[in-house]
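Re: export button greyed out
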Amino acid sequence: MLRTAAAVVAGKTARVLARRRGGGSAFPGLVAERIDPRILRHALSDVRGGIVVVSGTNGKTTTTKMLVALLRAHGRSVFTNPTGSNFTRGVLSEMLPQLPLGGRLRSDMAVVELDEAHAMRFIAEVPPTHSLLLNVARDQLDRFAEIDHTADLLARLGAASTEGVVANCDDPFIARAADAVDVPVRWFGLDASIADRLPELTEHDARFDDGPAPRDPGPGDARLRPRDERTFDVVFDDVVVGPVTLQQRGLAAMINATAAVTTARLLLGEAFDAGTCVEALAAVRPPFGRGEVVMVDGQPLELVLVKNPAGFGVALSTYGSTPVATMVAINDNDADGRDVSWLYDVSFASLRERGVALTSGVRAYDMALRLHYDDVHTDRVVPDLDEALDTFVATHHDEPKRIFCTYTAMMALRRTLAARHGLAHFGEDGPA
Amino acid sequence: MSTELLAPDGPSKGTITLVHLYPREMSIYGDRGNTHALASRIRRHGYTAEVVLHDPGTPFRDDAHLFMGGGGQDSGQARVEADLEAIGPTLASMAADGVPMLVICGMYQLFGNSFHTVTGQVLPGLGILDVTTRGNDKRMVGPVCVDTEFGSVVGYENHSGSTVLGAGQRPFGTVRAGYGNNGEDGTEGARTLNVIGTYLHGPLLPANPMVSDALIAVAAERATGRPFEPEPMSDPLADEARSRQVRRLVGTR
Ligand SMILES: [Zn+2]
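Workaround output, generated via the alternate export path:
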């Protein structure tokens, strides 16, 4: 007990100091953990309504945000790691300000987003009651991981969940993993009417000959049925949540919402209310870099974070129906992924008609070369990001604009946008 | 197996058949980009590209003029094993006959004599290249610059296998930045006749079009029975992308 209190105090102190220095978000968690290695387990031991781990390659941040909003709209107090601090110590650091000296969090529920590797560290410490398994895709950030390995980690997360698993029935890796767990599974996926759009969203599972067998939705399972670009229904066998209109566009965001609704229903049981869900989802603002819109001289400029082939592909198909002036900024720092090979696993054909105004970033020429191989014309190659942004705004002044960018390119562009176009202060989201 | 014909804009100088070995199982880290680059360059040189995607268990095109194979995960390699064993002898005799082939990473290892796993298992290779690979705990990852007979070549390596060349085996090039075959002897890849084995993803060919042209030249001759008739081509984007990487990795010299 004393030890826990000491850990909490030390962690809180470290957090204040780190904030003052503008330092990283993992450090306070590390300090607290050194003093009491079990602090995370203690902290979550009074959380009775569910400890949920959200994992998968793409959409963790968006889905977590939506799930938390749904649960809170139903009156539950929820702890989460909103800064996208995608690791165990980040979760702990986030928790410290809310933690009483007794070291036990006073929340009904906890929903944390963790990448696959950190989810393993988390479950070693705290068995989650539920896990939400989104998808498995190649991610260039994880330089060592093979996709099979990622799938295996998610299977272990599912197996460690004590009460239930929510799984994507359209993702072959996830479906195989969830089929193997002992606890009840709720499935979410695309309605049969849009099954043809599946290839945009999933990675082929080369380990097996066939994809997952189609499965009929059972009680508590949900299917996504879009009405148009922005509006959709989440269909259960006994209730329809919808029409839902999100602030974010595209199929990927709709799937994330469907996953969040399915999970919320499993957690809330009888208390689940469809109308409350529709309202809550409509109010969720897009997380950092997921289709965020900045007004620049009266014209919208959209920032779209791209970090792996599946994500870039989904982003291109999401925005393909409304072509606007486009810039692509590719850096190859650690947080971007140093290997740019993955750009060749994306098809850029949808940009062919309109062309690309500029490529920028450290790998600006590699990006322009990539586009060239898909017969997409690039007007200018300007490696310097600030110069590129100024040129982009000047040459396409009176029209909507869109920038696809890797993580560190986005951070740099946001800083410049903040300085020149009054963009509000922004958070410290990680490259989640 | 699927086949696609890409015709040039003008009259065709002939059809070059390009086989991508196991695109589903063995194309990690953008290796498909190599096939894409070859096909598009064949077209721009005025030839028709017949692109064949060869899947395990489908008929093998022993009349092809050019082969490309990429890297894969263990599960991918396991799934091509039987097919590779079946087509191996034909591939080997085609290689000995001078058919140009580019094999990257996992397929490079499979083209060698053998692969020794960390647990001591010995997996035989096709023996087309005189190289031997040992599984390793150390992973060799990062950007690479290699001096080759084609000039400076840039790419990105990501492998745990450590490859050693046989006594008479020529490397693909000499490492200027990065690990190469094993991180020790300064060699990268292997080259026998017109077969190039290398660890370079990136993918290799788009940024290094001179390697594409070398492979296409041989393939064109084999396809048409006439010397290669290239179209004059400038590659400002590839040249700039490559020279910037060279400067970043080895400085200006
Ligand atoms: Zn490799």
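Chain B touches chain A through 33 residues (CB under 8 Å). The button fix ships in the next patch.
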